[in-house]
Amino acid sequence: MDSKTTKILTIAVIVIVIAAALTVFFVMNNKDDKGKTSLGSGRLLVYGNADNDDYYDEADVDLIKKIADSGNWDSKKNPFADANNDGKVNQDDVAYMQNFLKGGKGKMYYIDHYGNTSYFNYPLGDRKIAVVGSSSGGYHGLIAGQMLGFYDKITAADSSLRTMDESIYPGVSKLKDIGNYNSGDIDTTVENIMTAGCSVALGGVYQPVYDAMHQIPGEYDYILLYTSAFIATGGGPDVVAKTMTMGVLLDCADEAREYVRYYDDIQSQVKKAASELKNMSYVICYNTKNAVTTHIDTVANDGSCAGDTWMIYNHLPMTDIADHSGKNYYEVDIETVLQWDPDVIFVVVSGNTAETAEEAKAVFEERAAYFSESRAYKSGMVFGSYYAVMGTVIGVSQLNLLASYLWPGSFNEEAGWDTLQKCLDDTLINHIDVRKSGYTYLYRMNAKA
Ligand SMILES: [Ca+2]
Ligand SMILES: [Ca+2]
After folding, report:
1. Which pairs from 240-244 meet CB under 8 Å and 24+ separation?
2. What pLDDT shows up at residue 37?
3. Cα(72) to centroid(ligand 2), Å
4. pLDDT band for position 36 (50/70/90)?
5. Phi–psi pair at 399, nearest 5 degrees
6. Are residues 393 and 364 in the same domain?
7. How many domains does the chain divide into?
């Protein structure tokens, strides 16, 4: 028997095992049994990070020891002191944490995108990663891989990602093809991940893929951390916490902290200036395709929101005046937006970016023109960005430049461009000239570029 035949047979057997395991899983799974865990007060949401700071280290071991010795565990204040997630803090947790710090194997528990407790079979080691999800979602995994330094471990991707821009996602067309993710056919996705030789997958947030990967005998994992700035319905960590958490799971905590340093710097610059700025009202109109209706990205009353909303709402002194009572994403008549009469309209365009700034400008001008009857348009206050930048980990790098457009007297435009350039240079593998690129294009009316 040649090795290819052996491989195919092995996969066939594995697939049968998965199918059997999935049947058991779907019978036994009861979502109500999955309790919500406190997100803690920190932003590194890995069990074992007892002191809630940005480091997963010996200081946590010391605190777990102290808590175990005292017999008094405040599970609200130090939720992650329970390193092995068994509901108690004792010497087992000390040993559990020490094992990971020595690079030992085990289930590392963390808070996932939904705010639930999930686990990863630590460490990543030399395992290969597949990126799952369509071109409008899966690219988050490709960006995280570049930013955190695990891009070379990504060897397979969703079909739709493989056709994305090589200048932003180098080598993406050569990744093994795992087909187009289809929520109705998880078995095929999992089978294709395995056939591609990957045992770890990430990208979009797909709980059924996570569940299916964990039903396979051996160490198979889906990482339920969506490095979009999207906040899940019902609550969950923000993009900073998700990045920090992914950093520990995949042994790239230093790179994750470097991102957070950027984030903290930019946030403090904007916040410092914000107190003196005139607050403006806004509405985000997403992927508007005609002059009659548009979709709205907003913060729903349950706190859920898409990444572009989170970046703007959470950092700039602006008030979202869309109706928050329903979903975080819904369709309205453009007439309704005119009635809301925001100071600013943001036109955000989905993940597929233009190559050059000129091309992007044409895309955004067309979208902006749908709002030509608005006060915002008439006063030159329509701005725009691609969701692939503003809604993702790198969105924060655009905030200074955007602030310079909104409050030209308080923010320096050149400094905004420089911040964006430096952040992209430090994040992406290829150099991109942010002033000429369509990808990082930030639209403002009457701009030259
Ligand atoms: Ca810590
Ligand atoms: Ca414990």
Report:
1. 240/43, 241/39, 241/43, 241/44, 241/45, 241/111, 242/113, 243/144, 243/147, 243/148, 243/393, 244/43, 244/44, 244/45, 244/54
2. 62
3. 13
4. low
5. -65, -40
6. yes
7. 3
Q: What is the mean pLDDT of the chain?
A: 91
322 CA distance to ligand 1 middle (Å): 39
Shared domain check, 170 and 27: yes
Does one domain contain both 351 and 236? no
> Is residue 153 located within the same domain as residue 187?
yes
Task: Please state the pTM of the whole predicted model.
Answer: 0.90
Give residue 272's pLDDT band: very low, low, confident or very high (50, 70, 90). Answer: confident
Structure tokens at 397: 């790098």
Identity of residue 409: G
For the chain, the maximum distance between any two Cα atoms, rounded to a whole number of angstroms, is 75
What is the structure's pLDDT at 447? 66
Q: Are 307 and 350 in contact (CB under 8 A)?
A: no
Copy the structure tokens of residue 437: 């690129």
Q: What is the DSSP string of 356-415?
A: BHHHHHHHHHHHHHTTTTSHHHHTT-EEEEEHHHHTBGGGGGGHHHHHHHH-TTTS-HHH
Ligand 2 centroid to 236 CA: how many Å? 23
